Amino acid sequence: xxxxxxxxxxxxxxxxxxxxxxxxxxxxxxxxxxxxxxxxxxxxxxxxxxxxxxxxxxxxxxxxxxxxxxxxxxxxxxxxxxxxxxxxxxxxxxxxxxxxxxxxxxxxxxxxxxxxxxxxxxxxxxxxxxxxxxxxxxxxxxxxxxxxxxxxxxxxxxxxxxxxxxxxxxxxxxxxxxxxxxxx
Amino acid sequence: xxxxxxxxxxxxxxxxxxxxxxxxxxxxxxxxxxxxxxxxxxxxxxxxxxxxxxxxxxxxxxxxxxxxxxxxxxxxxxxxxxxxxxxxxxxxxxxxxxxxxxxxxxxxxxxxxxxxxxxxxxxxxxxxxxxxxxxxxxxxxxxxxxxxxxxxxxxxxxxxxxxxxxxxxxxxxxxxxxxxxxxxxxxxxxxxxxxxxxxxxxxxxxxxxxxxxxxxxxxxxxxxxxxxxxxxxxxxxxxxxxxxxxxxxxxxxxxxxxxxxxxxxxxxxxxxxxxxxxxxxxxxxxxxxxxxxxxxxxxxxxxxxxxxxxxxxxxxxxxxxxxxxxxxxxxxxxxxxxxxx
Lengths: 184, 341
Hints:
- The complex is a heterodimer.
- Chain A is mainly α.
- Chain A contains seven helices and two strands.
- Chain A has a single domain (31-178), classed as Cytochrome c-like domain (Cytochrome Bc1 Complex, Chain D, domain 2).
- Chain A is elongated and about 75 Å long.
- The N and C termini of chain A lie far apart (76 Å).
- By secondary structure, chain B is α+β, with helices and mostly antiparallel strands.
């Protein structure tokens, strides 16, 4: 066995090792709803308008944020559950816009999920008990794409609806800030 | 002797294996005018192509045998072969004529099959819309009187002897509508309207299936087609137009409460109740259908329990989420669903 051959073999083995660390994105279909399998963190339900420190991120956030299947399912639900009726495709109408940098009730994924689940004053209905936890988190994952929060490789390159704006992958990332000053 | 018989038996078994006496789902099915046209066309093509195939192979073998006899001159290559064999020239002309005639015959046969199908399409008596979804069929019967239009799912009822035009749409990806016993395949393409005309000629139950790979549950996307007599069809239509019956038992009543106020009502429609969403299959007369979950399971109490409690283990990836009902809720929901006759 020549030393060159041995070196090549080592490189191949190393490459194999490195590649074996690659993992497919997880899809949860057979399991119980994720709300039941992962212990929920502190409730992100408390509203922090502008000041104070919000609670630590919910443990479920990392399962849904930047998860392409979750975002795609969220996109279907966004149309099917008629979020479009008030928020349009992010531009806002009867409901506030979702593509800008202002988040009245927090722009973190767990805060958005809490907003969807519990509802908010002035018209946002509560979806707890109507959608499953899984679906609420998928929706929250999709809502974050409207302001360009997730990494671009998780987002579908084109939207489902007719659109005259930039492709979803080119949506600029907005800084998330809560707006205690915004008019209600 | 025995050595000769064995392959013969094997061959006969193979050929007989191709025979199918049931018309349930068969590409040789003949339960509709379209399928009969296709079958006739298939036989014409088969016979003509078989004759030509046998002739070509015969000439090929003859050529090989002739060549190996090692005749003195290689007559074809020198361009004077017609001098050595007076039959060759008329033979070649006849061969060309035979190919021409065969092709023209095939073209004429398919022209007439096409024309008779187009003719049937022009005399449509009933228009049905089918929208394919991942992974189920949404069926809408249209009537000039809107109050007589109806929506159902995963089950198609057709009257015998009536040309029906089925318009095909898709909500997500490309699917394909295929009821082999009745007609050929036709794709359902998102953003585009396709159609297919069927005139069933035999009363019976047939199975259709999605014939274009459309995602993980493509295999469990089936459709039951009931071809009824005209009277039965009208009776079925009238029945389907009725609202869901009000539950009578306390158990079914609490199931009604759950279904209309919780997750179910967000996607499903049950006519005559507050559940009126259009995202999922219509459940108004669910219990009158032969199968659930687009042919994934036959309709039965046990299967309903399994499906409602954990759809994701029966059809992983299906859009119906696993809600995780408590046993009490599950009993009630299934009791209510069973009343939806």
